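Input sequence (311 aa), recorded before submission:
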Amino acid sequence: IKFMPKHHVVTFYQIEKILDHEKLSRDVKRFATKNSLLGTFFSTPQGINTTMSGDKQALEGLIELLINVHKLNFLNPKWSIAQNKPFKRLRVRLKPRLLPLEGDFDPVLRRGHHLEAREWNILISDPETLIIDVRNDYETDIGTFKNSKIPKMKDFTEFSEFINKEITKNNKTVAMFCTGGIRCEIASSFMMSKGFKDVYQLKGGILNYLETVDPGESLWEGECFVFDERVSLDKALNQGKYVQCFGCRRPLSEEDLKSKNYLKGVSCSYCYEVSSDSDKERFAQRQKQIDLAEARGHEHMGAAAKQKNET
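Predicted structure, token format:
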């Protein structure tokens, strides 16, 4: 039986005033490079946000670096397993703020109340609660909580327009959720700046909910989109059934893959009519190089196995 190495994945964020986010970024990049960690890490004056993969001991070392050296406090990191590498490279970025939502608010100073998963179930079961899915449209298409208000956003920058136009009753209890929790930190702070008082958010997001709630008590429907090569996770946090279109980044079902407009690495039924011919050609050339690289990799592995058997 061929052994397939598993790749550990950790996701976490912290909203906290960072006095020297540039130094923090340099330290993280140095540590991640030395320990062969892949994924994304954002460092801002408002806090940090990351999803990384690699050896679990190295990932735990990164967390220790942030806690012990940079004195950050943490929400619980969320762990999962990927059979294949979920990231192709390391990206450590400096940003002026955690997420690009404009407004007169500061999530470091004020944001919504966190709810544990069981408390969340009670709140969203109340028909008077306004439940808001704070994610983009391609994420909400494959899974959400029942009776959620879907903003149908292409990008998080559209959230303020959605609230200003469609959510007028600021006396209602608001329950909001997102993948890992960080969007809700920003969105809840924005909503409270607009006069909403009873604003709650799912602690740790959907990923924490799926990890801690018994499947028989879960109110989640569908799969959860994730921003790595796994594309989606099911209720058990195993890799889901969706693949991703490189052209528009949408998750695609088995039915979507049957479309005449689907071409691996190039287009799908959602983006075929809107992407240009030059884009399709560029994506096709990219996919060709990926296929060639994978073929060379398989040949190399086959030759190495043959040589090992002969010796």
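Checked by second reader. The helical segments are 21-34, 56-69, 117-124, 137-140, 159-166, 182-193, 205-212, 277-310.
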